């Protein structure tokens, strides 16, 4: 079977849409004590800085016509107000506990890379990355434009606004993006989160093609939070935004690392195929982070996994996912699991009339030293003492990212069609 090269070895199978802050009893007590003092102080300071930014952001655009606002802001409106808002933006996050930001690498200039692609997108607190990128222009939901302060800052930033509910709005946004990214330095540098939603950072979900439609060079930017407690993540299931704010402001400080990777120059093939371009940049960034590049996406408000042209709803605690997690927790690496899947497929193909196996045989095929884990895996897929190996290997293979859709499709046919041969 054909293997993907984007999967990195991890000891626990990553699920990007679930995150809970794991704290010991001592850490919880410490958090309550510090939070009772730091939370109200820090939030009050952040709100005050936001309120100060509001009129400054409005002043930058006062007196400009709609046509003038559709062009880049230049002259005194730029050099006077831009550094003030940049300083106040940093003050907001400093007050929330982000005392310093470690920056690695060099940010490319505008003509080198018109767009910065940032991943993983972990939280609303990721907006701190705008400070080391000099308030690069962003893409935001049009609904945010009506929010107090936030709307004024989006206008100040000359952000591209898009409504997810309006197809015409999306078309206009694509047209704006293309115009700006191909303006040869006329418009400021843009910053985009190609995942399109927040995750727990354990894997990169599929990149949306928006940042890659124009075929211009991009600079990948890695965003990480190297802290003892992972309080910043805000994903589909688990910690709420208010809990993120409470836990983060209850720490003495929170670290953030921003790493600028070398500019990625697309090939002609990638320029012609934005999805290929996006996938290749995703794999490059995943490799740099040491996490898998997956086909997970958010469709509406539902996490799904892309399998060929199908969108399969993600079960947050499905049997194959739990089985894979058990294997990683028992010390098997990614290459070990891939080899075990191939052994099971070989066993099924050699004995096509009998794909059932006991827990002892399953343990042997999986390379486990004890049968307890194999018994637990059997229990996930069968109520009997035996389990259908085809069901185990295909279901785990379909979510693991080890095999391509085409090879998985052909192997499934070979396993369930007694007259067929393996492809």
TrEMBL record:
UniProt keyword list: Acyltransferase, Lipid biosynthesis, Lipid metabolism, Membrane, Phospholipid biosynthesis, Phospholipid metabolism, Transferase, Transmembrane, Transmembrane helix
Annotated InterPro entries: LPCAT1-like, Plipid/glycerol_acylTrfase
Q: In which pathway does it act?
A: Lipid metabolism; Phospholipid metabolism
What Pfam families has UniProt attached to this entry? Answer: Acyltransferase
- GO biological process, alphabetically ordered: phosphatidylcholine acyl-chain remodeling; phospholipid biosynthetic process
**Alphabetized GO MF terms:** 1-acylglycerophosphocholine O-acyltransferase activity; lysophosphatidic acid acyltransferase activity
Compartments where found: Membrane
- Which GO cellular component does the record give, naming just one? endoplasmic reticulum
Asked if Membrane is a keyword of the record, the answer is: yes
Membrane spanning stretches? 32-56, 76-101
The Phospholipid/glycerol acyltransferase domain is annotated at: 115-226
| The keyword Transmembrane is annotated on this UniProt entry | yes
Q: Which family does it belong to?
A: Belongs to the 1-acyl-sn-glycerol-3-phosphate acyltransferase family.
Q: What is this protein called?
A: Phospholipid/glycerol acyltransferase domain-containing protein
Name the source organism. Channa striata
